[in-house]
Design goal:
GO molecular function, one term: Ser(Gly)-tRNA(Ala) hydrolase activity
Family: Belongs to the DTD family.
Helix content: 10-25%
Number of helices: 2
Shape: globular
Distance between the termini: 6 Å
CATH class: Alpha Beta
Number of strands: 8
Catalytic activity: a D-aminoacyl-tRNA + H2O = a tRNA + a D-alpha-amino acid + H(+); glycyl-tRNA(Ala) + H2O = tRNA(Ala) + glycine + H(+)
Radius of gyration: 15 Å
Subcellular location: Cytoplasm
CATH superfamily: D-tyrosyl-tRNA(Tyr) deacylase
Structural class: alpha/beta
Organism: Bathymodiolus azoricus thioautotrophic gill symbiont
Length: about 140
């Protein structure tokens, strides 16, 4: 499982011209599931995401998490994160969890993170989404579990 997180001052996801999810200050999470991922890894990733220190404290150091600042979390499914790009000029997706199972894991992730954090929004699994964001920093990290 991979999560690309970006510290944002604002972000939104649109499907068919309609905003389906948005946040102000917080993190935008692009989330991809690999074949061998299991639900305990999902729970571990949620804990890591919510605790990951990407926001600056009074001394200008990245010592605060999205929970510490009471920021928002916007989650977007993105299977391309788990693509095999080691050779050739076209990504391979044999490492990705099949769509039906990936959607189950995505729903599980959303349900679990909403229990752990009050401000969570999301895109639509499998939809053609337009994502807009203002990356604050820029600050971007790739997390793996």
């Amino acid at each position: 499982m991979k999560a690309l997180i970006q510290r944002v001052s604002k972000a939104k996801v649109e499907v068919d011209g309609q905003i389906v999810g948005q946040t102000k200050q917080g993190i935008l999470v692009f989330l991809g599931f690999e074949k061998n991922d299991e639900k305990p890894q999902v729970d571990k990733m949620i804990k890591k995401l919510l605790a990951y220190r990407v926001f600056t404290d009074a001394q200008g150091k990245m010592n605060l998490s999205v929970v510490d600042i009471n920021g928002g979390v916007l989650v977007v499914s993105q299977f391309t994160l788990v693509a095999d790009t080691k050779s050739g000029t076209r990504a391979g997706f044999s490492t990705a969890k099949p769509p039906v199972l990936a959607e189950e894991f995505y729903d599980y992730f959303l349900n679990r993170i909403k229990l752990a954090h009050s401000t969570v929004a999301s895109g639509v699994f499998g939809a053609d989404m337009q994502v807009s964001l203002t990356n604050d920093g820029p600050v971007t990290f790739l997390l793996e579990c």
